[in-house]
């Protein structure tokens, strides 16, 4: 039996202005506070063992004892230097950095076990990776073993028949605890999964939305204990908006709220708005009994949530500063780019907001913040909701070209990377770097467990942000609340888009 020591979660570090950092492991979605690296059925299935010291050892005894004669296992990643989305194959030695050294040990372990050499290939900019992938498949070239793409491009590429379904990769078992099983169930179509998130996909957790709060400001305003609200099931959307209003202050007294005044909420609309409905357990795109997509974005609960957002964010005093929409005069940034997100971070660092809504991977970017801050899951819709849902904004999966000449070898290496990522890089990154170094209290560590354990995705928010997500975001950005009429107008285009996806999936049988 192969035994792997539990040390950590993979590192594929995504830095696209908002440098989100975390991991993709998944526990039982029905509990808010269990260990996020473990599923309640893991021990029963024989996937893990515990030593006398409490150390967790995950096992994958179904992986074969094979070697591949020095084979170069190639992974193509974006060339654009705002990303570091690799398997970190270029790390050549231990440096004393916890995460760096964990990646190094993981990669060397796999290379030695299977007699391979993991090689990173820098491809084009991220928006051209799918073209490179498809070109390689069409030409029948054996250019790489894995291709990394942003999720929406990976999805479109899969529906064109260029991505090998997971079911054709021997030894890849997405029911195992090193996979984000709840998330992966959302991205199947017609009974097939074309790519799957595992603990090798750090960026999935990086792009999971959380709420950071200014602890000193909360104390100065004599607000309720934030962690107590979470534990007592009272951290709801109503409470979120209520507390945000206490923080609003026109600091310069000119009667006009600008970027140097104080707000209840700092964020950007693509981070905040969809999080409100996804965290409420609402989806805009669901699936029918045949595992095909259907539009459900005309739901009455969704309309109620959107109306609540409109009334609280725009129906009274200005509690929310949107770095993508509101006028910025005090910070240097490149307009029309992801750099605008840094404005929200800077405002939060300067104590100009009570709540800061962004991805978990933003937490390490606040290392220089002098005022202490805490971390919370995004609030529930109401107190009757059974758990906290953590919205995933995006992810960068690795896809296997359908022309891969040796699916078994690819499957073995992919599964080994997934297992070793859970076993070697989880504590190195999640435990040591994130929870200990940046999360500044024990309660924040518990909150990260809740966030990590309850990751979820709305396909209409991710793969089909256009034409689905933009329906609601555009209405709110226009400071209107005509949601039903906007949806009615958009339905023909949305249904045509989903029908095309379903037809493409059926044609791949």
Tell me what you see in this structure.
The protein has two domains: 3-205 and 396-438, D-Maltodextrin-Binding Protein, domain 2; 209-391 and 458-507, 3-Layer(aba) Sandwich (D-Maltodextrin-Binding Protein, domain 2), CATH 3.40.190. Helix content is 37%, strand content 14%. It has helices spanning 98-114, 129-139, 151-159, 181-186, 202-206, 215-220, 226-231, 237-247, 269-278, 300-314, 341-349, 407-424, 426-438, 442-453, 465-477, 483-507, and strands spanning 3-5, 48-50, 56-59, 71-77, 116-122, 146-148, 188-189, 192-193, 209-214, 263-267, 285-287, 293-295, 320-322, 353-359, 373-377, 390-391, 398-399, 455-456. The strands form six sheets. Strands 13-10-14-9-15 form a five-stranded mixed beta sheet, sandwiched between helices. A four-stranded mixed beta sheet has the order 5-4-6-17, sandwiched between helices. It has a three-stranded antiparallel beta sheet with strand order 1-3-2, covered by helices on one side. The chain is globular. Residues 1-41 and 81-86 have low confidence and may be disordered.
Radius of gyration, in angstroms, nearest whole number: 22 Å
Q: Helical proportion?
A: 25-40%
- Biggest sheet strand order reads 13-10-14-9-15
Task: Summarize the main sheet.
Answer: 5 strands, mixed
CATH superfamily of the largest domain: Periplasmic binding protein-like II
Total beta-strand segments: 18
What value does the average pLDDT take? 87
Q: Which topology of the largest domain does CATH recognise?
A: D-Maltodextrin-Binding Protein, domain 2
Number of domains: 2
Count of helical stretches:
16
Question: Judging from the principal axes of the Cα atoms, what is the shape?
Answer: globular
CATH class of the largest domain: Alpha Beta
Unreliable runs: 1-41, 81-86
Second rung of CATH, namely the architecture of the largest domain: 3-Layer(aba) Sandwich
Give the termini separation: 36 Å
Beta-strand proportion: 5-15%
Pairing-aware structural class of the strands and helices? alpha/beta
């Amino acid at each position: 039996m192969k035994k792997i020591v539990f040390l950590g979660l993979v590192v594929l570090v995504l830095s696209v202005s908002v440098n989100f950092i975390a991991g993709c492991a998944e526990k039982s979605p029905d509990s808010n506070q269990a260990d996020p690296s473990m599923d309640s059925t893991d021990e029963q299935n024989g996937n893990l063992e515990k030593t006398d010291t409490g150390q967790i050892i995950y096992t994958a005894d179904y992986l074969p004892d094979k070697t591949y004669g020095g084979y170069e296992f190639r992974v193509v990643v974006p060339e654009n230097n705002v990303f570091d989305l690799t398997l970190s194959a270029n790390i050549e030695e231990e440096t004393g950095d916890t995460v760096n050294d964990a990646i190094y040990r993981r990669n060397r372990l796999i290379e030695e076990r299977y007699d391979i050499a993991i090689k990173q290939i820098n491809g084009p900019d991220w928006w051209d990776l799918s073209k490179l992938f498809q070109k390689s498949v069409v030409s029948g070239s054996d250019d790489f073993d894995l291709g990394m793409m942003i999720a929406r491009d990976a999805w479109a590429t899969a529906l064109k028949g260029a991505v090998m379904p997971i079911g054709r990769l021997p030894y890849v078992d997405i029911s195992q605890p090193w996979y984000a099983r709840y998330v992966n169930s959302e991205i199947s179509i017609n009974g097939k999964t074309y790519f799957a998130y595992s603990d090798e996909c750090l960026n999935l957790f990086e792009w999971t939305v959380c709420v950071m709060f200014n602890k000193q400001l909360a104390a100065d305003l004599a607000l309720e204990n934030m962690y107590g609200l979470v534990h007592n099931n009272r951290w709801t959307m109503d409470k979120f908006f209520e507390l945000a209003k206490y923080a609003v202050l026109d600091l310069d007294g000119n009667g006009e709220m600008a970027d140097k005044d104080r707000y209840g909420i700092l964020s950007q609309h693509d981070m905040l708005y969809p999080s409100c409905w996804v965290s409420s357990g609402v989806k805009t795109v669901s699936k029918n009994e045949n595992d095909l997509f259907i539009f459900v974005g005309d739901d009455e609960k969704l309309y109620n949530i959107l109306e609540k957002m409109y009334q609280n964010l725009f129906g009274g005093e200005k509690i929310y500063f949107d770095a993508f929409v509101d006028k910025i005069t005090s910070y240097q940034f490149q307009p029309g780019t992801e750099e605008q997100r840094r404005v929200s971070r800077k405002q939060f660092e300067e104590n100009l907001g009570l709540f800061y809504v962004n991805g978990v991977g933003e937490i390490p970017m606040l290392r220089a913040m002098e005022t202490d801050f805490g971390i919370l899951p995004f609030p529930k819709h109401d107190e009757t909701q059974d758990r906290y849902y953590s919205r995933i904004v995006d992810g960068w999966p690795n896809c296997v070209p359908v022309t891969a000449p040796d699916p078994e070898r690819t499957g073995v290496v992919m599964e080994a990377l997934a297992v070793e990522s859970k076993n070697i890089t989880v504590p190195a990154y999640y435990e040591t770097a994130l929870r200990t170094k940046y999360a500044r209290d024990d309660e924040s560590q518990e909150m990260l467990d809740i966030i990590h354990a309850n990751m979820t995705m709305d396909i209409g928010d991710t793969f089909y942000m256009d034409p689905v997500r933009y329906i609601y975001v555009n209405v709110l950005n226009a400071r209107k609340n005509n949601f039903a009429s906007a949806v009615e107008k958009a339905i023909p285009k949305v249904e045509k888009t989903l029908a095309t996806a379903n037809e493409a999936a059926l044609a791949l049988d």
